[in-house]
Amino acid sequence: MTQLKVVFLGAPGAGKGTQAKMLCEKYGLPHISTGDILRNAVKKGTPLGVQAEVIMDRGDLVPDELVLGIIRERLAEPDCSPGFVLDGFPRTIAQAEGFDSICSVNCALQIDVPRDILVKRVVRRRTCPQCGSMYHLDYKIPEKDNLCDHCGAALAQRDDDKEEVVESRLAVYEEKTAPLVAYYNGKGVLHRIDGDRDMNLVFAEVTSIVDRTGEMNGQR
Ligand code: AMP
């Protein structure tokens, strides 16, 4: 059976993570976020984490080979056999090309959000350091002030969500990741989605595109 291999593209704050998680829940697919895998490695202090931490803190990209290694290992796990949803990978043309030699993406979803809105979204984002749940001081406020609804841990701002780092992450996105839109368009798998809307409206469009992709691949 053809796998559903979905990639989310979009700048930091576009809502990739939120949409990817909702999609995985709906279709029972694994959510693979290279950012989450790297943050976990940093938390555990593994050699990968030690190498990645300084790079992540300044908003740069970790080396392509390292990320490709992470992806190769993760995709070999059995839960990926029906397909997967990638969030935050690939982020460079070299990663996309490397990935093409492992498998081919059949749906690339580009979430478009204007730059001024991206900055506001990211700097007011809060994350649970314990379970990874995401909150926002305006759109997704925790029930108890600054505490995670799921595990009760104190929420924090990611170091790379601070305003000065966000600007450099957006510049890195424009330079290194935005060219992937043309890359996947050339492969005939790109779909552009207006991400400056209520997340449920965005999700309705995401699922309709993914359903069509599944039908074309004889899946659903
Ligand atoms: P994210 O959670 O996707 O915003 O990723 C947080 C940080 O992890 C990024 O700013 C990069 O430093 C690093 N990172 C995540 N995914 C990748 C990737 N595919 N390539 C290089 N660096 C990455």
Q: Estimate the strand proportion.
A: 5-15%
With strands numbered from the N-terminus, the spatial order across the biggest sheet is 2-3-1-4-7
State the helix count: 9
Helix share, percent: 40-55%
Sheet/helix structural class: alpha/beta
- Sum up the overall morphology in one term: globular
Radius of gyration: 17 Å
Low-confidence stretches: none
The main sheet comes to: 5 strands, parallel
Bound molecules: adenosine monophosphate
**E-strand count:** 7
Straight-line N-to-C gap: 11 Å
Mean pLDDT: 94
Order of helices and strands: EHEHHHEHEHEEHHEH
Topology readout:
Blueprint lengths: L3 E6 L6 H12 L3 E3 H11 L2 H11 L6 H12 L7 E5 L5 H8 L6 E6 L2 H9 L1 E3 L6 E3 L26 H15 L1 H8 L3 E5 L4 H18 L4
Parallel strand pairs: 1-3, 1-4, 2-3, 4-7
Antiparallel strand pairs: 5-6
This protein binds adenosine monophosphate.
Keywords:
single chain; 220 residues; alpha/beta; 7 strands
Molecular structure report:
The protein is of the alpha/beta class and 220 residues long. The chain has helices at residues 16-27, 34-44, 47-57, 64-75, 93-100, 115-123, 163-177, 179-186, 199-216, and strands at residues 4-9, 31-33, 83-87, 107-112, 125-127, 134-136, 190-194. The chain has nine helices and seven strands. A five-stranded parallel β-sheet has the order 2-3-1-4-7, with helices on both faces. Strands 5-6 form a two-stranded antiparallel sheet. The termini are close together. The model has no long low-confidence stretch (mean pLDDT 94). Adenosine monophosphate binds next to helix 2 and helix 3. Adenosine monophosphate is lined by residues 12, 34-35, 38, 55-56, 59-62, 67, 88-91, 95, 160, 169.
